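Ticket closed. Logging final result for tRNA dimethylallyltransferase.
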Amino acid sequence: MYSCEVIIGQTATGKTRRALSRAMQTGADVITIDSRQVYTHLNIVTGKDTGDAPFTDIAEISNSGHRLNIGHYLLNGVRVWGYDIVDPHVHFSSHDFRIYFQYIMENTINKDTVPIVVGGTYLYVKHLIYGLDSTTASNWKLRTSLKNASLGKLQQMLQTVDSQTFVSLNDSDRKNPHRLIRKIEIAQFQLKKHPGMVGMQSSLNTAPLIQPTSIIALAHASTKTLEQAITTRVDERLKNGAVQETRWLLEHGYTYIDPGLQALGYLPLISYIEGHQTLEEARTLWITSEVQYARRQLTFMKKEQTSIIKVGSSPYDDASF
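Final structure:
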């Protein structure tokens, strides 16, 4: 496992600035973990905040038929990794991020210091610290076909292909469509690979990759400060060209069905550009979705055995998570 400092938190709590400040003191690299910022071209809406800093290409590796860009930005003298890994057309999962993470830890990260992992998407952080349930890669064709399936149908499918796993799930997981689809995905893969060995995947694990030397968790002091911070952030990104960026993406062949454009903010802006709603309506939807996401982040954070630091009414300007 790799020793890392870990900073997690809600949207707009100052995680990235805190990580950069710490890295400037120690000389460490920073690795951002954000499922939206891994995509190229998605800059303003996702809040990469890299300014005019150039992206330095280091290498390119192949994974599941698509390429992963290995490179970094230099921000305040700190090498920042985790941005611009894949094209918005490409599906990208926590499994893919683990492959990326292992590569940079082995080949590019400064080994004389302890890197700082900041973010990001909680599922990615979880799978780095605790490992994966299975090495099974994502089956996007299956996920798309089950996207609109009812909860009852998903439960029935999992019971059919792997009753042992279904019985082992807690009540929350049994009511979580994403969790059920992933379990079905793993079970079908194992049945194809080892016919008749139902439940085999229950014993499969991928090892944790991170041994945290410390974990800092940041949250807003109140719902009011959360909503204020997100509203300010959305308005700043609209002012900085979020609509123009979205229009550019559409003009260059990207569409609302591309995985990258599922990132919060793009769908309401696309709807506005296509004339289906006003800009104010799109703004409201964007803010609402960000607030809802931040609330889910807090729920995840509370599951960790670590103290949560409350951020006041003037949080740092932060880009990730």
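Residues 140-203 form one domain. No further action required.
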